[in-house]
Amino acid sequence: MSPAAKQYSGVPAWVAALAVVGATFVLLPLAAMVLRVNWAEFIPLISSESSVAALLLSLRTSLAATVLCVIFGVPMALVLARTDFWGQKLLRSLVLLPLVLPPVVGGIALLYTFGRRGLLGQTFEVLGIDIAFTTTAVVLAQTFVALPFLVLSLEGALRTVGTRYEAIGATLGAGPSTVLRRITLPLVVPAVVSGAVLSFARALGEFGATLTFAGSLQGSTRTLPLEIYLQRETDPDTAVALSLVLVVVAIVIVSLAHRTGRPSLRRARELS
Amino acid sequence: MTRPLRALTLLAALGILSAGLTGCAAPAETAPPASASADILEGSITVFAAASLTTTFTELADAFEAQHSGTTISLNFAGSSDLVTQITEGAPADVFASADTKNMTKLTDADLQKTDPVDFATNALEIAVPPGNPAGIADFADLATPGLKLVVCAPEVPCGSATVAIEKSAGITLSPVSEESSVTDVLGKITSGQADAGLVYVTDVTAAGDAVEGIEFAESAEAVNTYPIVALKDSTSPDVAQAFIEYVTGSAGQRVLAAAGFGAP
């Protein structure tokens, strides 16, 4: 679409061949799943009470987790990108840990923190807050695994955009909060949006931490991935149908992220 | 922690020892036909066994291999329904041991068995509570106490359907805070202290050692799971497969299973 892409497209044939193999590897399993869908029963399968409850719960909790990710992730990214302090590199890798951690491990860690016998469990009990087996536990698990996605993509964008405009703003007398509000954030809005979309997608697919930490009960903690896992036991048709629903939602989200992610790159390029 | 472990090791050693003894006698009992090859077992088999059989079948396979040096047994443990799916999708298996008859029926419906399945163990439900029983649970009816954090298996999985059957026969409706998709997940919620009580198998309580306390209840007799085992049609070493099944159903196998808390078929 862009003229630059048209001018030169010198991808060697062997690179293209490898790319085709890679793409097939990703797409073939999806196609295999679509082939197994029982289309005659598709609508009844995905509109059963338990399916709808799981889908709505998933969307609700993922949305809540995304909001938490934005509230806490944006400041985290700003601190990591714009400040310089001892141990910052270590802190960054620790904060991004949930990205590479097996979700089950995340669930166990959360259990030892927010569980009834966990680090903060006693405190919460005194305050009369019960997290175990509630929707709150699901949101916590999803936020834990999704937060690094927002931090990572936003920090990258902040570094690419650079500090030139912020410095000029500051010399013209703007305070730090004004610079943040009038210069920094407007520049990285697309990155915040695409980071949030990625976090939402990650939260939607969360399984291991939820299973370990929150439990599984229709309407309160059984999200769509947990429902799929359970239905697979007795009703593979429902499991496949729900998997397809999840895939479609994921595709919509990824394409959204791609569209909103573009302007930030373009703007960054213009600025540099 | 160390004492029950040592006791277990001792039991295991006894099991292996007795396995050796009975194993020697086995060929004489079955009176092999003219061919001498029946005496010397050779080949490797893959056994697909329900997750609840992990400890016992690992032990039995080791003992069997020690007895028949020409054999190798590879074990694959997972939920019974997962295993059936894998086998019907073409996974190479020689023996399948299921945690319930329902999943075995799925396999025989697909006509993948070589012989008819044989029942080799039973397992009943037991109440599991964190050490010290903080909620003071004494019997099944106590599980319906309002405010109690009870965790059970979802009705879709075998331990969950057993729970539903007991609820029906006892006329007690439970309102669990979570319906897990595997018995391991139920146990995890108890050992971590997240839940006050859970319904798991007797064998799970035995295996968990000091991490949980088990409370037997009379109503559990209403829903006893039967474990069937079968040799598969496509087995590449049918002799070894059959010998292993006989070993599991024989006195040595039964002793190991009983030590783990399984009931006799």
From TrEMBL, chain A:
It is found in: Cell membrane. The keyword Cell membrane applies. The chain crosses the membrane at residues 12-35, 55-81, 93-114, 126-154, 183-204, 239-257. Residues 55-257 form the ABC transmembrane type-1 domain. GO terms for molecular function: molybdate ion transmembrane transporter activity. Its main location: membrane. InterPro entries: MetI-like, MetI-like_sf, ModB_ABC, NifC_ABC_porter. Keywords: Cell membrane, Membrane, Molybdenum, Transmembrane, Transmembrane helix, Transport. It is a multi-pass membrane protein. It holds the Pfam family BPD_transp_1. GO terms for cellular component: plasma membrane. Gene3D superfamilies: MetI-like (1.10.3720.10). Part of the binding-protein-dependent transport system for molybdenum; probably responsible for the translocation of the substrate across the membrane. Belongs to the binding-protein-dependent transport system permease family. CysTW subfamily. This is Molybdenum transport system permease. It comes from Cryobacterium lactosi. The gene is modB.
